[in-house]
Design goal:
The protein is an all-alpha fold. It is built from nine helices and no strands. Helix 4 runs parallel beside helix 7.
Amino acid sequence: MTLPSIRFNVLIILILTYIGQVLTISDGTVLLNIAVWLISYYCYTRFKTYSASISLQADGTAINRLADGLLILAYYLPATAIISNFTSYFSGVNPALASLLSLISHYGYLSLLFIAIYFLHSGSVRLIPITNKLEIRLPQYIISLVALIIGIAAASVLVLGPLTNLSNMAGQFHFPLWYLIATVALPYIYIIFLTTKLLHNIQFYNYYITGVIYRQAFNLTSIGLTIIIVSIVARRLAVWFNNYNGYPTEAGLSVVALFTIGLIVAGYLLVAAGAKRLQRIEQA
């Protein structure tokens, strides 16, 4: 069995698991979700095909890392839906475990999101030296400082706001509050920190890479990556904030979910379109 077929089989297993769940759990967005996941995976394969075609070039390793990050995000979408359905089902069976199951599910979401952002950030870092513009680049510590400030500012509103509820949860399940802050709140800050840095790196590469035609083609990929990453991170933060602070409302959260789904699909389609143009350039 080839590696591409293994990757696709993993997606199929996730989809079948999800279908099996919704046979017992009401979910009106089954077909929409599956369509989004298949589109996301297809667009990833287009980008992965391009990365394989330049594997021996200077930017081959960096682009391959970005492709791996996109694959993990493509898996992240169905995996989080499955985790959410499990949490909803068992919380209904035993309401006393609802808060604990919600916390455990967050660890699953965080782990998958962190792995994806890590690979994307790793790939983006490898893009910078290729531009040969290190002399005009801001010192890395300045970029890191700006990213940290953005992470803390966003987290202070979206993550640290619900800490009163975390404090109550800590007392209920005998978790030290510092443990919840260290394992739930701070990872979100770090994810925002890495996200800010990787988006800067991608835009820097896109702006300074040589070749007008190549730059125009990669611009589609750059915009698509930015939309995907920002949409998924923002959606996760919105769900977190709703669960532990009660705002926005469930109706508002549904609107956010549908909006971000549309953005994620648009982002993946842009990545695929950019990858197709880039591959044509390589074959010319």
